[in-house]
Amino acid sequence: MNDATVPPGFEPAGFTPGFLDHGGPYYLGAAVDGVRVVGLRIMPHHINYQDAAHGGVISTFADVALSHAVYDAERPRLAPSTVTLTVNYLTGAKLGDWLEARVRIDRLGGRTAYTSGAIWRGDEQIATMSGVFSVRRN
Fold first, then answer.
1. Less CB within 10 Å around the terminal CB: N or C of the chain?
2. Cα 34 to the center of its chain, rounded Å
3. Residue 16 neighbours by CB under 8 Å, 6+ apart
């Protein structure tokens, strides 16, 4: 899949190599209420035996989006580690779907961040999510 299939306003996230290379590619869009939207196009390597995006893809996407919001919340950037992640699946995603994760930072304390949000396919919410992150300031 090439960048031509990515909606205008999104750019490759350029996350560090490793596990995220296998789950993406991920894209960053404009900020909504101060937090950048994260995008993902569902591709063949995301699909399960039911021709839908595997639940693990959606939960990884949730973790990526929530943790990126915390990471990007301050300068110098924060180093978040996931403590808890909750994903509620409302409906499935299919091959070719463009998903956007929209996140809120509910509380950012000295050592802990609380986040929530949803994953959208167009104007349809397909999952809700929340996470708690341990925060290390560099």
1. C
2. 15
3. none
Burial per residue of 13-30, b for 16 or more beta-carbon CB atoms within 10 angstroms, e otherwise: bebeeeeeeebbbbbbbe
Q: What is the CATH number of the domain that holds 25?
A: 3.10.129.10
Amino acid making up residue 15: F
Query: Tokens standing for 89?
Result: 């699946």
Distance CA 35, CA 42 (A): 22
- In terms of pTM, does the model score above 0.90? yes
Which is more confident, 67 or 138? 67
Place of tokens 């939960």: 59
What are the tokens at 121? Answer: 């396919």
pLDDT tens track for 77-118: 999 999 999 999 999 999 999 999 999 999 999 999 999 999
The number of distinct structural domains making up the chain is: 1
Confidence of residue 1 (pLDDT cuts 50, 70, 90): very low
Domain span at 48: 3-137
